[in-house]
Amino acid sequence: xxxxxxxxxxxxxxxxxxxxxxxxxxxxxxxxxxxxxxxxxxxxxxxxxxxxxxxxxxxxxxxxxxxxxxxxxxxxxxxxxxxxxxxxxxxxxxxxxxxxxxxxxxxxxxxxxxxxxxxxxxxxxxxxxxxxxxxxxxxxxxxxxxxxxxxxxxxxxxxxxxxxxxxxxxxxxxxxxxxxxxxxxxxxxxxxxxxxxxxxxxxxxxxxxxxxxxxxxxxxxxxxxxxxxxxxxxxxxxxxxxxxxxxxxxxxxxxxxxxxxxxxxxxxxxxxxxxxxxxxxxxxxxxxxxxxxxxxxxxxxxxxxxxxxxxxxxxxxxxxxxxxxxxxxxxxxxxxxxxxxxxxxxxxxxxxxx
Length: 354
Known about the structure:
Layout: H1 2-20, H2 26-45, H3 53-76, H4 82-89, H5 102-125, H6 127-137, H7 152-169, H8 173-191, H9 199-202, H10 209-215, H11 220-223, H12 233-238, H13 259-265, H14 280-294, H15 302-318, H16 320-324, H17 327-343, H18 345-353
């Protein structure tokens, strides 16, 4: 365990140096490395979930390998650091009209945290972003190192969005450094496999491990929630907060492991499984009943009503875009048309015209 801790903290220090990449960040880097080591020890002595040692070691190894891989790729691409941009545009953005005061620091923090909230939410709502973000979700052993299990293209995307914010607002270099340190601090904290007293109370204000565990659930209506990085206020404000206890962590279906499999995983688009609510059939039955009631309970349209109701309920539960891309909607229309052909010519005409 001590060897793994030493290896993990060494790689993590290199990763933070790449993120911050400035001499004045040495103290912040050291503090974060010590905090990272502390969280590993906390997980070891006070774990919330008892992961198999073999699987946990595999998780640490793969996540650290992604650190190195991402650092190498970003270095080869010669991506300028956020700090360099901040130094160049500090006096040219919107914040330059405000005095260098507490207001500037607070506004910068809120803007950065809100940006990360929307980016995180978008990565769950758009398939092109989800195929990258699912690399982060497919760790079956949630732990502090999972915080850095990120596909390099997602790292690049987030960095570009942060860079735009830095330029638009004209964020000062020292303010940016503090913000990045806070973000990394809380990202490590809410991925940690532990529980502590007062966690639920603290969760009213910031994202804590119990809130983020629900976000890593295999059930979609659970993991499509709790998008916040630092503050939980955004999830409460936009109605995306959940406090459920997930039955299982990770993603459903095939879960590729290993560095290159994880990298390849980000390029293969696969649909997220649809998980039906417990009362799914009851919801469909009620919707089908109201459809039948509207047409006076005429015989011969039961299948049509059921399939149309099912398509509409899926749209309400999972979103219209999900139904549009799902074969079920096309199958429903086909079956409804066949049923209409066998029962009513007028109904057939209406379906055909729609």
